[in-house]
């Protein structure tokens, strides 16, 4: 993990009418690390990811990505800058195959022209074949989904659909990957597999990751640092051990009793 800061959030505030979703939130992620963002429901975790990926525009604050303020960058430009994400609710094309869904993640980078695209010839065909080879050799193999690559996504179990969504995000070749509850709705075996894939992506591909997750076991096992939100404000940040022992986190997020404390 590098000491270089890949993204820095400074004094971010976001409100919807009279509801303050985020208030004066500041945090940062170092290059090559896994930063987990945790907190109770409604704490502002997904809102933070939506601001970074430019789905939401905060009323105050800055988001510095690789030294550049991206607060005014359009949403469609974010992927080209090296930021990809998955969603809390699966956002796949259910009638398309696994391979076609994954390929869509990379199409924004293809450079062929309109006439070549219409004829599917020349540069378009070359780019398509190169893309398919890259996906099949790297991503499909990494996420162990070779057996389902030709299956229609809508026919797959929920856990495999989550894996396909991660594959599509990886097809964007991100430097920063935003994961919004990637283990939600999974059984124990699926959760362990997803945790392993996330670690492989981080360590083998040197991808920085910001992870929103409710499974505290996973958070404490795979994160380098943890940022804790409550009612849109940051109440703690540090290593998993530091956060685990923080009295304010225990009180606000887990409760005071020993049983709650043991869940960390």
Class inferred from helices and paired strands: alpha/beta
Per DSSP E runs of 2 or more residues, the count of β-strands stands at 10
CATH topology title of the largest domain: Rossmann fold
> Mean pLDDT score, rounded?
87
Biggest β-sheet: count, sense, barrel? Answer: 6 strands, mixed
Tell me the name of the CATH homologous superfamily of the largest domain: P-loop containing nucleotide triphosphate hydrolases
Helix segment tally: 11
Order of helices and strands: EEEHEEHEHHHHEHEHEEHHH
**What is the radius of gyration computed over CA atoms, rounded to a whole number of angstroms?**
19 Å
CATH architecture of the largest domain: 3-Layer(aba) Sandwich
Shape: globular
Poorly predicted regions: 112-120, 256-263
Regarding quaternary structure, how should these chains be classified? single chain
Cα(first) to Cα(last) distance is 24 Å
Taken together, the total number of domains comes to: 2
Fraction of residues in β-strands: 15-25%
The helicity comes to 25-40%
CATH classification class of the largest domain: Alpha Beta
Task: Write up what this structure looks like.
This protein has eleven helices and ten strands. The chain has 264 residues and is of the alpha/beta class. Helix 3 runs parallel beside helix 6 (158-170). The longest helix has 20 residues, at 123-142. The protein is globular. It starts with a strand and ends with a helix. Residues 112-120 and 256-263 have low confidence and may be disordered.
Topology:
Elements: E1 5-16, E2 19-30, E3 34-38, H1 45-52, E4 60-65, E5 68-69, H2 75-78, E6 83-85, H3 98-104, H4 114-119, H5 123-142, H6 158-170, E7 176-180, H7 188-204, E8 208-212, H8 216-222, E9 225-230, E10 233-238, H9 240-244, H10 247-254, H11 258-261
Parallel strand pairs: 3-8, 3-9, 6-7, 7-8
Antiparallel strand pairs: 1-2, 1-4, 4-5, 9-10
Helix pairs in contact: 3-6
């Amino acid at each position: 993990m590098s000491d270089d800061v890949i993204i820095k959030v400074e004094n971010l505030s976001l409100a919807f009418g009279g509801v303050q979703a985020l208030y004066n939130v500041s945090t940062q992620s170092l290059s090559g690390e896994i930063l987990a963002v945790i907190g109770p429901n409604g704490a502002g975790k997904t809102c933070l990811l939506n601001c970074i990926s430019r789905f939401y525009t905060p009323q105050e604050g800055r988001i510095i990505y690789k030294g550049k303020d991206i607060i005014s960058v359009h949403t469609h430009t974010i992927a080209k800058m090296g930021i990809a994400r998955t969603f809390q609710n699966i956002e796949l094309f259910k009638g398309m195959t696994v391979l076609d869904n994954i390929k869509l993640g990379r199409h924004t980078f293809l450079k062929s022209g309109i006439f070549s695209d219409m004829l599917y010839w020349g540069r378009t065909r070359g780019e398509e074949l190169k893309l398919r080879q890259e996906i099949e050799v790297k991503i499909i193999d990494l996420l162990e989904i070779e057996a389902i690559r030709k299956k229609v996504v809508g026919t797959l179990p929920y856990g495999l659909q989550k894996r396909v969504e991660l594959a599509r995000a990886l097809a964007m070749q991100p430097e920063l990957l935003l994961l919004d509850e990637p283990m939600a709705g999974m059984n124990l075996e699926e959760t362990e597999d997803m945790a392993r894939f996330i670690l492989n992506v981080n360590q083998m591909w040197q991808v920085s990751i910001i992870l929103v997750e409710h499974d505290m076991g996973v958070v404490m096992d795979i994160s380098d640092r943890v940022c804790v939100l409550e009612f849109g404000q940051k109440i703690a940040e540090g290593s998993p051990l530091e956060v685990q022992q923080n009295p304010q986190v225990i009180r606000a997020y887990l409760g005071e009793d020993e049983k709650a404390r043991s869940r960390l």
